[in-house]
Amino acid sequence: GIAWVGNDGFFYSSYDKPDGSELSAMTDQHKLYYHKLGTPQSEDKVIFGATDEQKHRYVGASVTEDDRYLLVSAAVSTSGNKLFIKDLSQPDSGFVTIVDDTTSDIDLLDNQGETLYLVTNRNAPNRKVVKVSAKAPQPENWQDVIPETENVLRASTGAGFIFANYIVDAIAKVKQYDYDGKLVRDIELPGVGSVGGFGSKKDAETLYFSFANYITPGSIYAFEPKAGASSLYNQPKVNFDPSRYVSEQVFYTSKDGTKVPMIISYRKDLKRDGSNPTILYGYGGFNISLTPSFSVANAVWMELGGVYAVANIRGGGEYGKAWHTAGTQLQKQNVFD
Predict the structure, then answer these.
(1) What one-character-per-residue DSSP string does 74-132 give?
(2) Which of 46, 196, 235, 277 has the fewest CB atoms found within 10 Å of its own CB?
(3) Is-above-0.85 flag for pTM?
(4) Residue 39: count of CB within 10 angstroms of its CB
(5) What would the mean pLDDT of 72-85 be, rounded to a whole number?
(6) Comparing C-alpha atoms, which of 315, 272, 313, 312 is closest to residue 292?
(7) Distances (CA, A) of 297 to 160, 279, 308
(8) Are residues 19 and 103 in the same domain?
(9) Where is the domain boundary, 196, 218, 234?
(10) Per residue in 281-335, pLDDT tens?
């Protein structure tokens, strides 16, 4: 992606054209460039990644909303990243290292002046929000704003608030905080399902979020952050009546005694006597969480009398790093048991 700096230009990442086949040659040195609007791309300058010391497979950039700070993420795989910061208000300033190892994930959430807000799983497998001064941004100076909980966190900001989106038994729960970490409210959602959004600029008066589950097509809701009220903003025109169906969560016990959640969806008039055709779906890999979503194909299946069941087996990310690890490598059999 790209990271804009006001209306002047943007940062973007690219690989050099490989020697030999463009389809098979290795591309292992990602570089960050800056493009100034109104100039040819040939004049773009490399900002990060040109040296052997800065050689990484993946390099990305983010810029704070006030255009003051550039943060550069550098990684050698899809998990774990280094993080560097540059003060854009000081043209001759260099990069300051925040984290110089790839044992954890760290991302910029926001800033308030010189205070940075970061989301990380460093010493917090389920992720937490921390704050730190940009003048001394190393981990030993971090202060918890939203501490780690037993549930996996995804965080966003908008209208001057932090929104903590947790996966609780594979279902979304959202909490609204101020920048001091004080809980404002638990947000009432339209139902049991998956949620995304709540992100916008600090001066936004209305935020928007998406909601969906196995019997509800993805819809957009407007949210008033001061009052905490939500209202339906837009929903797709689908010839499907959710009121005729039920989607319920159950728990079953794996072979080793571990409790595993599963969501079962079907027509309300269906008798659950074990004779109904059933699609049982699971994944259990790559730290991917199977959260409720709507599918036309599954809707047709249920309309015809089928049952659709999704098991949140180990190997996924529904309960954090430990749940994922318990379904990998020598523990892979847990996925199937």
Answers:
(1) EESSSS--EEEEEETTSTT---EEEE-SSSS-EEEEEEETTEEEEEE-TT-TT-EEEEE
(2) 277
(3) yes
(4) 10
(5) 95
(6) 312
(7) 40, 12, 11
(8) yes
(9) 234
(10) 999 998 899 999 999 999 999 999 999 999 999 999 898 888 999 999 999 999 9
Distance CA 334, CA 325 (A): 10
Percent residues over pLDDT 70 in the chain: 100
pLDDT digits (tens, 9 = 90+) for 87-112: 999 989 999 999 999 999 999 999 99
| C-alpha count within 13 angstroms, C-beta hemisphere, residue 256 | 12
One-letter identity of residue 301: W
Residue 332, both tokens: 């892979």
Structure token digits, residue 2: 């790209």
Specify whether 115 is located in the same domain as 254.
no
* CATH (domain of 263): 3.40.50.1820
177 in Cβ contact with 183 (< 8 Å): yes
